[in-house]
Amino acid sequence: MANSNRIVIEAGRTELHYWKDIWRYRELFYFLSWRDILVRYKQTAVGIAWALLRPFLTMVVFTVIFGKLGNFPSEGVPYPILVFAAMLPWQFFANSLSEASNSLLGNANLISKIYFPRLIIPASSVITSFVDFLISSAILVALMIWYQFAPGWRVLMLPIFVGIAFAASMGIGLWLTALNVKYRDFRYIVPFIVQFGLYISPVGFSSSVVPGKWRLLYSLNPMVGVIDGFRWTILGSESSIYMPGFVISMCIVATFFVTGIVYFRRTEKTFADII
Amino acid sequence: MSDPVIKVEDLSKKYIISHQRERYTALRDVMTNKARSLGRKILSPFASRSASASSTEEFWALKDVSFEVKQGDRVGIIGRNGAGKSTLLKILSRITEPTTGRIELEGRVASLLEVGTGFHPELTGRENIFLNGAILGMTRVEIKKKFDEIVDFAEIEKFLDTPVKRYSSGMYVRLAFAVAAHLEPEILIVDEVLAVGDAHFQKKCLGKMEEVGKEGRTVLFVSHNMGVIQQLCHHGILLDKGKVIVSGTVSESIQAYEHATLHSFSSEELQPGIIYSNKSHDTSRFDVVEIGTIDQEGRPLSKVSTFEDFAFKILFYSPAIQRNGSVALFIRSLSGTVILRLASRPDSCFDFDFEQGVNAILCHVKKIPLAAGTYVIGFGLAVPMREWLLLEKELCSFTIESRDIHKSGFPPLQEHAVSVVDYQWSRLSNSRA
Prior knowledge:
The structure holds two protein chains of two kinds.
Chain A: E1 6-10, H1 15-24, H2 26-40, H3 50-69, H4 79-106, H5 108-113, H6 120-146, H7 158-182, H8 186-200, H9 212-218, H10 222-235, H11 243-268, H12 271-274
Helix pairs in contact in A: 2-6, 3-4, 3-6, 4-6, 4-7, 4-8, 4-10, 6-7, 7-10, 7-11, 10-11
Chain B: E1 4-18, H1 27-43, H2 50-53, E2 56-70, E3 74-78, H3 85-92, E4 100-106, E5 109-112, H4 125-135, H5 140-154, H6 169-181, E6 187-191, H7 199-214, E7 218-222, H8 226-232, E8 235-240, E9 243-249, H9 250-263, E10 274-277, E11 287-294, E12 304-305, E13 310-318, E14 322-332, E15 338-343, E16 352-354, E17 357-365, E18 373-383, E19 387-401
Parallel strand pairs in B: 3-7, 3-8, 5-6, 6-7, 12-19
Antiparallel strand pairs in B: 1-2, 1-4, 8-9, 10-11, 11-13, 13-17, 14-15, 14-16, 14-18, 18-19
């Protein structure tokens, strides 16, 4: 019995326990996300409604600017639904990046006083953003009812694309988190990425408006693949996936995900010393 | 039972102290430094690289530390500030990695390096119990099982649903300790947490920790309070400058610690009757020049025994004239308690004007009521009730020789009681009636 709990501490030896420890501390994912959600809406007048209000207002603005004023093509679906199907994964991604990148600094006291796999902290920020994602999906459902728009069989594939959005948020989130501990410059870079990304990702418009010869290049943005995937499943037959671009996006997501974990793990050991 | 549950071998931890001004690395600096060194390489490709390394310095917080702890041991880790105690605890609790060496731990480890880590001020007491429990490694089921016990221990039933930001600091600490105390690890690591809370709660915490040890669990405890260490632990490890000096019973280590504290004062040989001498005193400020003991005829007295009549002769330097100054001598026990204060003002109503230069003053003591043993002398100069001109809390050691004042064959010794009085016993006749 004693052997099952034996721990060896040596320079560079933490790897062995790491994944076992993550499993042992699995409830911490839940508790940290739960804490963040509870705290976020304490002492606010409308509380959790903020999670609905923000994406809803952005969607209204985008519909007016791109759909009404810009007359962008809507792929045969009501423009608000086109926007919102992209808004959902984008908000999830953007929130994850900003929350995760600050999460370690915000929990600095925990890191310098208690051991647990550090990966849990940014991961639970991503989970927190995922909860917001689930809440704001209610808006999409409401929009579909309002416009009497029924999704096809492809909506069953949605979980796969949610998984991809998760991997993208996690991978890039981990990179930014680890970099932010060491180089505080990233505190200023992240909001910029998020703001800039909203315009270079196909959130307010369909990615089909991008000229054919640029589409491959455009797909280097990992969110292009994710958003196209979301539209493909939700909007039904009217939208299509640009396959080569999608494959590139997925490769980039996978690369970020794997290297993000590796880089985070490599710098993690020194967090307590430099934070 | 006899197998070690903690085995530490040749543990070392190196920190790089950088003498740069920036508090954290900024990307900008990394890039400019890289560019600069690249530029240097191009300009003078054969120059040595040592020039850029001079702004950092290596510091070994721990060096080749080895020890073993057996199951159920309660071990106190003592040492002066900067001896490496906290670093050792941080490595044992896996917060930071060692540079070299190896540790084997058998069993679940819980460490309590600070009370209330992870508490969120906006959350209620109830919510924080769950959150803190999870951070410390408890499962939800475990926390639920212990919930009532924790609330009971912390004595906060009424405020369970109040955000902890509205708690008094005492309540906050009580709740935090209560959660931690109800962890059930095989190895518990505790750092100085008992320095908080009121006396009643401290006693409760001590009791809880003793209980933990009796249940066969292993406790590592760091404190500056020797009394608590003595009470709680039976093994002691003394660290100094990152090295293990003593690893043995708790009284051995405490003695060695006190001994080391005394010998840090001065190692040079003093003349008979002189207990402190400072040949190169400062002339820009108030400073002690010499403290000695003389007998009633004014001759140097090399040995002072219990109940001796003698005088302290004090020479000190004053950089300016100071009217109505006060001179004070403190006699402390080795654990730091002040046993006697001999002050010219306000205690003795003795007016004394400091002259510029070296001043000499005598303090006559009748029947000094101290048992045989070693004490620490502190010295101060003050403007009474206003400010300290000089305060040396621990200046030098002072030894009282034994004298059989009761004529019983048993002279009073410091181990039994620090102070001594003249007293007698008598039987009260018809006491039973």
